[in-house]
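Example 3.2
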Amino acid sequence: MAKVTAQMVKALREKTGAGMMDCKKALVEANGDEEKAIEILRKKGLAKAAKKADRNAAEGRVELHLSPDYRQGALVEINCETDFVAKTDEFVEFVQETVKFINTNDIADVNALLGAQFGEEGVFEEVLKTKIAKIGENIVVRRIAIIKAPENGIVNGYIHAGGRVGVLVAAKCDKPETCDAIKETLRDIAMHIAAMKPQFLSPETVPADVLEKEKEIAKAQLLKEGKPEHIIDKIIPGKLKKFYQENCLTEQEYVKAENKESVKDALAQVAKKVGGTAQLVDFVRFEVGEGLVKTGCNIAEEVSKALS
């Protein structure tokens, strides 16, 4: 039996909003496994969601670069130790130069970047070491993403809050004219992604094991509410529809819509104005320090203000 510490209980409480004793019991039942404990709390109706807190104390910057024809985009997260350094001109320029280099040279991952010749300055890994020595803080290239547009496709993106959040999103169109027409809407959808944090592109892209777990949780909640077992199977599809609306980009209510239309429908309407069709095909969202708790900012609120 794993030892359940006060720190483990506190961390679980911060992530679920459940009571301290409920968190402790769930951790004991899960033998110290936090993910299993969250699932236990959800099944008991004691936790509203299974999302982990996704901000940590790491500082740094996310930056993007788009090709001139909007056919490809790159996103990078580079971390440093303090917010002060993250905001300096030298650090910002270094991140911007790096993401441009990544996109221009089609570099797919951090290891490839470290070994690449960074212009006339030398191998990137050595350039990075020089930058660390000069700035006086550890600097880490945490992750890289590249999105390429399909045939008759387009990529656009958005950087929020001084590089704290970055998004790339791609769509395919029936013709080049449609791509031109949806370009700005695609940027607005990237802003939506920054605020609403979709986990999946569409219902079709949700992994089968995730769906099964949601069904299990929904069934456990309905049984706890006293629903007869023979009608539970009829209720679960409605529960899954709500899950899709909350977690799938195409089904989310578009933050800029006035009539509560989905992101998918909002894009289709813009394409329809020029007699075309468009469909979202990919997206990626980076947030500085994603994965650990970080307090003091409400990104959804800030992006909603930017969109209004």
